[in-house]
Amino acid sequence: MHGIQGSVAGLRAVMADGASADWRSAANYTDRLQNHVQETVALLGDTEARVSFRLTGNELLEGIRQRNFAAAGDRNVALSLVPGPDTELDSHRGSLLC
Fold this sequence. Notes:
Elements: H1 2-15, H2 21-49, E1 54-56, H3 57-74, E2 88-90, H4 91-97
Antiparallel strand pairs: 1-2
């Protein structure tokens, strides 16, 4: 994972100086990819350290909302999250949803 992390960071640095819309789009994509890699590394670190906590359904919805609200707005999509049954997930499974 760390090899991928460095490669994506290097790619992002190269893409950052592009002036065209295609280059900016590619740079934004590498930003998202870099964030996913960092989240994966953090999740793997939590798993190895045996760190785990419970997340309520409302906490999961708030995490999903925070993570996706801006992207939905950029695409003119109305993001609507409806609370479901009272439930809890451990942090590892919750991280996959958020």
